[in-house]
Specification:
The chain contains eleven helices and five strands, in the order ααααβββαβααβαααα. By secondary structure, it is of the alpha/beta class. It has a five-stranded mixed sheet with strand order 3-2-1-4-5, sandwiched between helices. The relative contact order is 0.11.
Length: about 300
C-alpha cells in the first residue's frame, strides 16, 4: 500500500513538472551511469598520475582514449578538464627563481647558427643540448645536462652533475653517441655557454664528424626544443626539491624513461618520443605557437573612405 502511495505521489510530482514517470526513471538511470563513468575516469587519472604526478589534462585525455573506448565512455577534453577541476586534480605550474646556467662571456670560439628554417625528416639529423638546474635542500643545486633529438624529441643523452663544468655535458654527449644509429650527417645545436665551447666538448663533436651550431643571442626561443624538454621534465616528472644529488640522479633516470617511452608528445603527433624516433619523413605536430614574429598586422580601416565608396 505504501508503495502505491509513493508511486501516486511520484506521478503527481511528475505531472506538475510536465514530465512523465518514465522520463524520471530514465534520468535516474542516466545519472547513475554518469556517476559511475566519472568515478572510473577519476580512478584512471589517478592511475596515470602514479608515474606522472604532474601530467596535464591534454595528455591525460590522449592517454585515456583507449580506456574510454573499451568502456564505451565518451568525454571530450573540455569535460575532462571540468571533471579534474571539480575533483581538485588540475595541475598548477610551478615557478621559481632559477640560477644562471649559461655563461657566454668567455674567450672560447663560438660557432654560427646552422639550423634556421631547417626541415627535419629523420632521427639523428639534429641534436639540441642544454643544461637545467635541479633544486637540492639547503639552497644547493644539481645540474642536469640533456641531449635531445630534435626530430623525435627523444632524450638520447643525459648526465646529472654537481657543478657547471663541461664534465656533465660531455658525459651526456658520450651517451648520445653510443646510441647513435647511423653515420648520416648530424648537426649539434646549443647555446654559446662555455661548456659547449670547451675544447673537450668541441673535440668530441669534431672527432664524430658532427657539425657544430650555436645560438646567436640569449633568447630562449633560439634553442626552443631544448627549453621545452627541460620544462616538461621539471613541471611534470621531477620533484621540486631533492635531499641530495644521489636521489636526484635516481629520479632523473626514471623521469627520462617515462618521458621517452610513456608520455605522448604533441610535437610528434601525440606519439611517444621512443616511437617517433623510428619514423621517417615529416611528423605532424598538434600545437600552435602563440609567437608569430612574421605575422602581419591588419591594415587599419578608413571608415570615412569606406562610407564614400558606399
Amino acid at each position: 500500500m505504501k508503495m502505491q502511495s509513493c508511486s501516486r505521489g511520484l506521478r503527481e510530482h511528475c505531472r506538475q513538472l510536465g514530465y512523465s514517470p518514465q522520463a524520471y526513471y530514465q534520468y535516474q538511470k542516466l545519472s547513475g551511469k554518469r556517476a559511475l563513468e566519472e568515478d572510473l575516469l577519476i580512478q584512471q587519472v589517478l592511475h596515470h598520475r602514479i608515474l606522472q604526478p604532474r601530467l596535464g589534462g591534454r595528455k591525460l585525455h590522449e592517454m585515456m582514449e583507449p580506456f574510454m573506448e573499451d568502456h564505451d565512455i565518451y568525454v571530450c577534453r573540455d569535460l575532462l578538464f571540468d571533471l579534474l577541476r571539480e575533483n581538485d586534480l588540475l595541475i598548477v605550474k610551478r615557478r621559481r627563481n632559477q640560477p644562471q646556467t649559461t655563461d657566454s662571456n668567455h674567450w672560447l670560439r663560438r660557432y654560427p647558427d646552422l639550423i634556421r628554417n631547417i626541415t627535419l625528416s629523420r632521427a639523428d639529423e639534429l641534436w639540441v643540448s642544454d643544461i637545467t638546474y635541479i633544486h637540492l635542500t639547503k639552497k644547493r643545486f644539481a645540474y642536469l645536462s640533456l641531449v635531445t633529438d630534435a626530430y623525435s624529441r627523444k632524450i638520447v643523452g643525459f648526465c646529472m652533475n654537481n657543478d657547471l663544468s663541461a664534465e656533465g655535458p660531455i658525459a651526456a654527449l658520450e651517451m648520445a653517441l653510443k646510441g647513435r644509429a647511423s653515420d648520416e650527417s648530424l648537426i649539434h645545436h646549443s647555446d654559446r655557454g662555455s661548456q659547449y665551447c670547451s675544447d673537450g666538448y668541441v673535440s668530441l663533436l669534431k672527432s664524430s664528424a658532427i657539425n657544430i651550431s650555436m645560438t646567436q643571442s640569449g633568447n630562449p626561443r633560439d634553442n626552443a626544443i631544448a627549453e621545452r624538454v627541460n620544462g616538461i621534465l621539471k613541471q611534470e616528472l621531477l620533484e621540486e626539491v631533492y635531499s641530495d644529488i644521489k636521489q636526484a640522479k635516481q629520479s632523473a633516470v626514471i623521469a627520462i624513461d617515462i618521458y621517452n617511452r610513456i608520455r605522448p608528445h604533441s610535437s610528434v603527433d601525440m606519439m611517444t618520443p621512443e616511437k617517433a624516433h623510428t619514423q621517417k619523413g615529416e611528423i605532424s605536430r598538434r600545437w600552435k605557437s602563440a609567437f608569430q614574429p612574421n605575422k602581419k598586422k591588419p591594415e587599419p580601416v578608413n571608415y570615412q573612405q569606406k562610407a564614400e565608396v558606399i
